[in-house]
Amino acid sequence: MEFTAQMIAGLIEGTIVGNPEAKVNNFAKIEEGRPGCISFLANEKYEHYIYETESSVVLVNNSFEPKSEIKATLIKVADAREAVGKLLAIYDSMKPKKQGISELAFIDPTAEVGEGCYIAPFAVVEAKAKVGRGCQIMSHAVVCENAKVGDNTILYPNVTIYHDCKVGSRCILHSGCVIGADGFGFTPSENGYDKIPQIGIAIIEDDVEIGANTCVDRAVMGETIVHSGVKLDNLVQIAHNDVIGSHTVMSAQVGIAGSTKIGEWCMFGGQVGIAGHATIANRTMAGAQSGIPNNIKKEGTAIQGSPAIDGKNFWRSSVVFKNLPELNTTVQQLKKEVEELKKQINNK
């Protein structure tokens, strides 16, 4: 597929500076630009690349003013990063989608598969399962008994949707993702640990994307719910009976213990851990490796550290922490001097 700068500007409401007939057929980072590629500049620390890039077209913010000559055609937009995201989505949507059911796939006679689906070799759709229209079920993905998948959802290779669980429409589940495995439920006994049956389900609502090897466990009773618009990175753990609010995002290796309720529009950096039975307010922002042991009640709270505290307080405390050895030496020296002064005063 080939596009002119004029066509691209029309799609993203941009203003052209240079040749409107410049043609592109691929994307490239600005530092790796090649003729026929489109790049973008959104961070000023990369500005020096724009004067040497070989890309034919570069998206820039409206505020950008070049300091010297640029070979590429520029398209000025309100937000270059947002514009390139829109273009990538358009480009991806134009790729032809596979359709048809492979002879090597297994679909139980009692299962339902909607029109326009692609079921790859060695994919499995078990008894009474339902797969909506336009889905892509890749090799070795399994939709277990009585599970349901909505329209236009993609299950990449080795995804497993356990029995009775539900995945909504327009979801993307990456390789190795598991929805509805048993929650971590055991009770101590004389012989070790007895398993507590996990008889609930897991529900993934619409427009959710879940990364590779991420797990959403089924509930002990009732439902584990990931609400609409949530984006989970690779290697995230959502435990039994958790509720994840709409449009919340989690980076890699976040772990949420059981029966925790996460608000809407929250943002969690890598390796954030949250204790069980906690309630986290809407729009909470937790920096990487934060440990959250209790409820967060105030919306829009920004936290950092373990146990997590106010973000600004954490960074001020970090400065002090780095100097603790020197501070301790100073305090010990002052203690000695104070003791000497006390002795001198008492001897008078």
Which features would summarize this protein structure in a list?
single chain; 348 residues; alpha/beta; Udp-n-acetylmuramoylalanyl-d-glutamate--2,6- Diaminopimelate Ligase, Chain: A, domain 1; UDP N-Acetylglucosamine Acyltransferase, domain 1; 3 domains; twelve-stranded mixed sheet
CATH class of the largest domain: Mainly Beta
CATH superfamily of the largest domain: Hexapeptide repeat proteins
Instruction: Summarize the amount of helix as a percent range.
Output: 10-25%
Tell me the number of helical segments per DSSP (H or I, 4 or more residues long).
5
What Rg is obtained from the alpha carbons, in whole angstroms?
Answer: 27 Å
- Mean pLDDT rating: 94
Shape assignment: flat
CATH topology of the largest domain: UDP N-Acetylglucosamine Acyltransferase, domain 1
CATH architecture of the largest domain: 3 Solenoid
**Unreliable sequence segments:** none
Question: Which structural class matches the secondary elements?
Answer: alpha/beta
Strand content: 25-35%
The strands making up the biggest β-sheet line up spatially as 8-11-14-17-20-25-28-31-34-37-39-40
Termini separation comes to: 95 Å
For the biggest sheet, the summary is: 12 strands, mixed
Count of beta strands: 40
Report the oligomer. Answer: single chain
